[in-house]
Write a structure and sequence with these properties.
The chain is α+β, with helices and mostly antiparallel strands. The chain has 1 helix and 5 strands; from the N terminus they run βαββββ.
Length: about 80
């Protein structure tokens, strides 16, 4: 239940018909941070294998897969959720 209360935001991902790989998700997060002039640093990974990124001093789990982010129903997306 507490995961629902954590801050999260969508990362732009154009190819929502294909599930992004870990490396594609990292590239999209890096591009998003560069475009928005945010400081970021990739750290470790979660138990599930999702990358962890520090953005402006806060740790986020990079989530990607079906129905995540701004993709809507029937698509793939990427988002960052605060740890």
């Amino acid at each position: 239940m507490f995961k629902l209360l954590k801050n999260s935001f969508a990362i732009p991902y154009d190819n929502n018909l294909k599930c992004p790989s870990v490396s594609e998700a990292r590239i999209c997060v890096a591009n998003y941070c560069d475009e928005n002039k945010l400081l970021y640093e990739f750290k470790d990974v979660t138990k599930e294998g999702s990358p962890i990124v520090k953005i402006d001093g806060k740790d986020y789990e990079v989530r990607f897969g079906y129905g995540i982010g701004q993709c809507g129903p029937g698509g793939y997306g990427i988002s960052c959720r605060e740890l």
